Amino acid sequence: MIDKELLDILVCPLCKGDLEHDTDTQELICPRDKLAYPIRDDIPVMLVDEARRIESE
């Protein structure tokens, strides 16, 4: 489980915007850039090259 304090300070490395934690997919979502950053072994991978593009809803 990722630490709540860590989630509060993390921002998108591309736009510096707030992230949303998706507990189902274990990803941090940037709604502005439509990117999902993976969380692997409770560690957020905050690299744009590792993020997956998400579809707008």
Helices and strands, with pairings:
Elements: H1 4-9, E1 20-22, E2 27-30, E3 35-40, E4 43-44, E5 52-53
Antiparallel strand pairs: 1-2, 2-3, 3-4, 3-5
What does this structure look like?
With 57 residues, the chain is mainly β. It has a single domain, classed as N-terminal domain of TfIIb. The chain contains one helix and five strands; from the N terminus they run αβββββ. It has one helix spanning 4-9, and strands spanning 20-22, 27-30, 35-40, 43-44, 52-53. The radius of gyration is 10 Å and the shape is globular. The mean pLDDT is 93.
What is the share of helical residues?
Answer: 10-25%
Which topology does CATH recognise? Answer: N-terminal domain of TfIIb
Low-confidence stretches: none
Record field, number of beta strands: 5
Structural class: mainly beta
Tell me the domain tally: 1
Q: For this entry, what is the oligomeric state of its chains? A: single chain
**Individual helix count:** 1
DSSP strand content: 25-35%
Q: Measured on Cα atoms, how large is the radius of gyration?
A: 10 Å
Shape: globular
What's the rounded overall pLDDT mean? 93
Gist of the model:
The chain has 1 helix and 5 strands, in the order H-E-E-E-E-E.
Task: Considering the chains and any ligands shown, give keywords for the structure.
57 residues, mainly beta, N-terminal domain of TfIIb, five-stranded antiparallel β-sheet, globular
